[in-house]
Amino acid sequence: SFDEAIKLAPEMAQAYHQRGKAYSILDQREQAIQDFDEAIRLDLQNAQAFFSRGMSLDVLGEYQRAKSDYDEAIKLGPDDGVAYYNRAIVHTRLGMDREAQAVADRADGLGFDPSLLENAKNAASAER
Questions:
Q1: For a FRET experiment, which of 2, 24, 25, 85 has its CA 20 to 30 Å from that of 57?
Q2: What is the tens place of the pLDDT at every residue in 4-47?
Q3: Alpha helices, DSSP H, located in 43-127
Q4: In angstroms, rounded to a whole number, what is the distance separating the alpha carbons of residues 43 and 13?
Q5: Do the Cβ atoms of 116 and 85 come closer than 8 Å?
Q6: Half-sphere exposure in the Cβ direction for 59 (13 Å, CA)
Q7: Which of 72, 62, 67, 71 is nearest to 39 (CA)?
Q8: For the segment 54-99, what is each residue's pLDDT rounded down to a tens digit?
Q9: What is the pTM of this model?
Q10: Is the CB of residue 67 less than 8 Å from the CB of residue 90?
């Protein structure tokens, strides 16, 4: 289990990240964020931990914090089209449609399907 791995190697960022992902799947976002925080503390270059924490923050409606995490994930992994896509969605939720389109264009340039952003925009508009 992840708990055992963490007991055996408490400095292993990946164990915290993976346990956080498991918490996310179980919709236990606060616990997930705590584990992502620890994974990031242990490895500031862990783009996936920033991305995962951003996803949990996004689900909780903490869009500015999610955007910051997606920004960091992109800085550390500039070829991650999914991170660009998620950042575009957060921009849309924040009412920053022009910025969302620019970010979506970058995701499209990395091979991410741009029609997915249109679906997200429609969903975000319905939420407003």
A1: 2
A2: 878 888 889 999 999 999 999 999 999 999 999 999 999 999 99
A3: 47-59, 63-76, 81-93, 97-109, 115-127
A4: 6
A5: yes
A6: 14
A7: 72
A8: 999 999 999 999 999 999 999 999 988 889 889 999 999 999 988 8
A9: 0.84
A10: yes
User: Which tokens hold the place of 73?
Assistant: 């994930």
Structural domains of the chain ordered from first start: 1-62 (1.25.40.10), 79-128 (no CATH)
Give residue 105's pLDDT band: very low, low, confident or very high (50, 70, 90): confident
Among candidates 63, 64, 50, which has minimal Cα distance to 17? 50
Q: Are 95 and 128 within 8 A, CB to CB?
A: yes
Contact predicate 41/57, CB 8 Å:
no
DSSP 13-66: HHHHHHHHHHHHHTT-HHHHHHHHHHHHHH-TT-HHHHHHHHHHHHHTT-HHHH
Q: Tell me, rounded to whole angstroms, the distance of Cα 90 from its chain centroid.
A: 10
